[in-house]
Design goal:
By secondary structure, the protein is mainly α. It has helices spanning 8-25, 27-30, 62-98, 100-114, 118-129, 133-159, 163-170, 175-211, 222-230, 238-265. It is elongated, with a radius of gyration of 22 Å.
Length: 269
């Protein structure tokens, strides 16, 4: 039997994602300093032995704030994708299986939401509600479920006329049982892959909102660190460089992981 070739991008993605998740969970123990502790004598100091990624305009340790910032990014990513997946799977499954008026009603709502650029709608909602972590999650959930609903509906439409579904229907199985036991397991693989990519997109969206000042103000976030770093870009580039690298690495990791899951769950391969 031929040996399976090592998937370097998948391994890289798994390492990146695991590292960020570990930082988010164990931030109080991994951060070398209090993220809000100020040292005015060390304002805008570059990387050193005591502060490997430097200090910001108030003398706060950058690496500690980056580690704590991973909590906000991962919390928003997981919460938004979980809620969007639940709502999208329920509405998409209902639309695809029921068809008719129900399908038309749900898909017209989807079409209306798709008429608005997602990030602009999130900016408008977050701007109206005010800057907070909950409002960011709520604003991103408004559009997040739409992609899952369309994906699940398309998968259900292709599955509901297959032989095993028709057999279950012919012996009197209820629609709820057919959807849960026979239809939904068939759409799990593409939904899991979509969820992985959605986390990456959500992290970018959360960082964008925080960069614009619409994210939480009471905790460190990568977007807010980038916002402050822009003002000192010429003589303290480390303030924007390191948070930007963390956003890039995290998004790249989840994208690599999504590609690997897509290949692994593709039955044609």
């Amino acid at each position: 039997m031929a040996k399976r070739k090592l998937n370097i991008p998948a391994l890289t993605g798994a390492i990146f994602c695991s590292a960020v998740i570990i930082c988010a969970i164990f931030a109080p123990w991994l951060a070398p300093y209090d993220p809000d502790a100020q040292d005015l004598k060390g304002q805008l100091q570059g990387p050193s032995l005591r502060h490997p990624l430097g200090q910001d305009e108030l003398g706060r340790d950058v690496i500690s704030r980056i580690i704590w910032g991973s909590r906000a990014s991962m919390l928003v990513g997981i919460c938004v994708v979980s809620v969007s997946l639940l709502i999208g799977a329920l509405l998409g499954g209902l639309a695809g299986y029921a068809g008719g008026i129900v399908d038309n009603l749900i898909m017209r709502i989807v079409d209306v939401l798709l008429a608005f650029p997602g990030i602009l709608l999130a900016i408008a909602v977050a701007g109206i509600l005010g800057p907070s972590l909950f409002n960011v999650i709520f604003a991103l959930c408004l559009m997040g479920w739409v992609g899952f609903a369309r994906l699940v509906r398309a998968q259900v439409l292709s599955v509901r006329e297959r032989e095993f579904v028709l057999a279950a229907r012919s012996i009197g199985a209820s629609p709820t049982r057919i959807i849960i036991r026979h239809v939904m397991p068939e759409v799990t693989a593409p939904v899991v892959v979509q969820a992985t990519f959605a986390i990456a997109g959500t992290i970018i969206a959360e960082s964008s909102l925080s960069f614009l000042g619409l994210g939480p103000q009471d905790i460190p976030t990568w977007g807010s660190m980038l916002n402050r770093g822009v003002d000192y870009l010429l003589f303290a580039p480390h303030l924007a460089t390191f948070p930007g690298l963390l956003v890039m690495i995290t998004v790249l990791g989840f994208n690599f992981l999504g590609d690997a899951l897509r290949d692994a769950m593709d039955v044609r391969r």
